[in-house]
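writing this on my phone so excuse typos. first protein, seq and then structure
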Amino acid sequence: MDQKILENRSYDVRVLPSVDDEHGGVMVEIKEPMDPNNFNMLLRCSLSHWKMQEKKAVWVKLLIEFANLIETTVKEGFVYHHAEPHYLMLVYWIPKTFSTIPANATHRVRIGAIIMNDKRELLAVLEKHGRFKGTGVWKIPSGVLEEGEDIFSGAIREVKEETGIDTEFIDVVGFSWMPVSEYAAQPFAKEHSVFKYAADFCLAKVDNGYTGFTPLPISSYFDEHISYLYAKKEDLNL
């Protein structure tokens, strides 16, 4: 395997080849056989290097034929994230903060939070990480639901994480609003129908009394867990 050699004035640092991801982390895919001892040394040096670079998550993808490296990887603090028939994905969270690595699942639900005021203005954000980083695209707060999380709870959480706005607060400081028409006029929004529909829903709600689905708490016969049914509340006379 070819290792990347980084010169550091008085010494050389050998690190595993990696690719930066969209969220401030790195991804490593082992493609050639390696001796576990050599791999362990490279992995330790790599982790030290990535810590100095203030990376977040380190992902290591091991094909099934390199299963002999699993024990070494786990001993360095990596944990299993998910597995497929022909590979295992392990991950390590570097910062001394709460890990934001999403749990693996059979599917993912992405949500966007549309927040408007009485001036027909929309709360929009510029992403620091992710596919929109550096594009100049203003977008609604969005993200992926956590395992077992309800849709409306996820929307509230994402707004809090991305803007610092708590829905229980009255005053908002340091955030700007933009007209819905300006949001919808962005070239990116015009090219992707989901953004256009989001703007259309906003205007339909304000101008035409459009109503969407409201979360209604329901109990289960099988356990005490409260879940939610999404329906048009006004049509049910509730």
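second protein below, same order as before
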Amino acid sequence: MSAAELFARANDAFFDDEYEDAVINYTKSFLVDNTNPEVMLRRCSAYQKLKEFQKGLDDAAHALNMLNANQGSRSMLARGHLQKGICLNRLKKYNEAQEEFLKSKELNPNEKSLAIWLRKNEEKLADLEAKKQREEARKAKEEARKARAEAEKAEEEAKKAKAKAEKAKKRAEQKAESAPPAPAPAPSPSPAPAVVAPAPSTAQAYRARHEWFQNDAFVTVEVFVKQVKDSDISLSFFDKSLSLTIKMAAAGSEYSLELDPLVHEIDPKQSSYRILSTKVEIKLKKKTEGIKWNNLEGEDTLPSHLAGTSGSASSVRKPKDWNKIVSDIDKDPEQKGGDQALNELFQQIYANADEDTKRAMMKSYVESNGTCLSTNWSEIGTKTVETKPPEGMVAKKYNQ
């Protein structure tokens, strides 16, 4: 397979959120043709999605070396510095990240998402400076307190020593020479060695599945996590990006979702989210209503179109939203239909299944008109399940 074919396969995996497959195919493409810096920049983006920021930083640096050696274009150099800056920011090296963002701005002030990352990084730098000043003030105050305490302690010890000396002198004068010596004080027991608890291990990034769908006005992103409170969520909407962090208290880790850049602009003020029992639902208000999003993130690789507004019915059958059907059944598990025993068996299997199995069961049952039941989503997810009536029977349409 050629480098271009492997590169295209990696891009498809990236836009399908299959970032590990994307990394594998970007690597294969680079092994076939190691002269294309674009491959390194794309693999850097995939590593960012996998939270492997040091590997992403290495790829960005490699791409910049290739571009500088071959006199790359200003726009490509700007992208390289931007990607390097993002990795440094996520590694909390904010001063180094700022240098890369400023280099990118000098080469191409209009580089996508540069303004957003500059603002984020500058806010972090301001927070660090404020924290540093607070820490310096605290240390100065603490040192002054210690100095006062030491002076007071020295004065008190001097008074005690003087009083003790006077008392000993008086007692010696009154004590008879024949008095037995005072017993030596018992040695104080040695303190037991302190048991040092092992340092807690660094929490791993929490991984969760997310899906999305849309209508004319909104794009809805669903993140499938459980036992989440509103105080655990930090969510920021921007014109062309989304930043989500969820503290997973039960797992002792954090889940992070960065959609940057979104394929189209949104209205941050009219975007919102809500917390359900099994997921967090995020509604992104489309800035241009009626436009179809072919992707959620990155560049729109397919031509977008506006939804029709005429009163005539469309001849194209709209695909069913199996996530919504599964959600509806989760909300009303007592809903029944058809033969009672079969329905109860269906519900029993469904109640203990995972999300993909539930979707497969609903899709196969509905599309086959109740004649087939599959639990394999990877097998039926991309095709229509045919009606297969029992032997000796013929399937007919409703009006036949």
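The domain at 35-124 is CATH 1.25.40.10 (Serine Threonine Protein Phosphatase 5, Tetratricopeptide repeat). thats all i got for now
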